[in-house]
C-alpha cells in the first residue's frame, strides 16, 4: 500500500509540475468552461452546439475568427446538454488566473455531456490559431457510468474541414489496455466511470501547419458498442486551446484589459468594469452572431441599457481604440 501510494503521489506531482510549466509558458487562446450554458445551473435538456448556434468560448483571443463548438448527429437522437459538478483540471475560470473574476464554484461548475445513442456523431471544435504556434489542447473527461461510449476517436483539420488528419504518437499519450493508440482515447476507464474527472492533453506542436492557422479544427467521434446504447453519456469540461505568440502575431490581452460585468444574469442594466479608461466600442451580439446594439464608451466603469433585449444569451465585444485589444464577455438576459 505504501508503495502504491508513493507511486500515485509521485505521478500527481509530475502532472502538477508539467501543468504549471505549460501554464507559465503558454497563452490561453480559446477556453470553454460551459458555466453559462443553458439551462442555468446544469439542468440538462437543451440541445447545445447546433450548426446555427455553436457553443461560443467563454474566453477567446480571436473573437472575429468565430471559434465555436458544433455537434453534428447523423443517426439516433443523441444530444449535447449540460450538468453540474464539473472538473477543476485546467480551470482557467478560477480566481488563480487573470482571465475571469469568478470561480467555477460561483458559477455552478457546469460541464457538457454527449448522451447515447451517439454512434456516427461528431463534435467539432473550431479553434483558429492565427498569430500563435506550439498549439496544445487540454480538457477534462468523465462519464456517467460504464454505459457511456467507450472511446473518443480524434482527428484534426488545417484547411477548415476539407481534409482530416489522424493524430500521431507525438501528439498524445493515449493507450487502450496498454497498447498505444495514437488517435483513440479510452473515455470510460477506472477513473471516469466513477464520475471522477480525468485530465487529457493533446500536443499539436509536431505539425507546423497547425500554427498560425485560421482553419484549424479538432473533431472527435464517440465509438464502441456502448455508443449505440440508449443510456449513459461521456462528459467534458474546461476545453482549452493554448499556444505561444508567433512572430509578428497578434497582441495578447493582458490582465489590465479584461472586463467583468454585473449583474449577470441581467435585467434592465449592467455595469461593466475594467482597468483601462480609454475610449472603446461595445458591440452586443446574439447567439447567431448578429449585432443587436453598438455603443461608444469611455472610462474604467460604464453601464449598458439591456432593457430592450429579449431573454437569452448574448456576447459583449469590447474593443479598445488605443490598444486595439478586444475582450468577449457572455451576458445572460433574464
Can you walk through the features of this model?
With 334 residues, the protein is mainly beta. The chain folds into two domains: 220 residues, Galactose-binding domain-like (Jelly Rolls), CATH 2.60.120; 79 residues, Immunoglobulin-like, CATH 2.60.40.3080. Helix content is 8%, strand content 38%. It has two helices and 22 strands. The protein is globular and about 60 Å long.
- Contiguous helical run count: 2
The percent of residues in helical segments reads under 10%
Q: Describe the main β-sheet briefly.
A: 7 strands, antiparallel
Q: What is the CATH domain class of the largest domain? A: Mainly Beta
CATH architecture of the largest domain: Sandwich
Structural class: mainly beta
Question: What amount of the residues lies in strands?
Answer: 35-45%
Whole-number count of domains? 2
How many E strands?
22
User: Which residue ranges are poorly predicted, with pLDDT under 50 across at least 5 consecutive positions?
Assistant: 1-24, 247-257
Oligomer state equals single chain
CATH homologous superfamily of the largest domain? Galactose-binding domain-like
State mean pLDDT (0 to 100 scale): 81
Identify the overall geometry. Answer: globular
How many whole angstroms does the radius of gyration measure? 20 Å
Give me the strand/helix succession: HEEEEHEEEEEEEEEEEEEEEEEE
CATH topology of the largest domain: Jelly Rolls
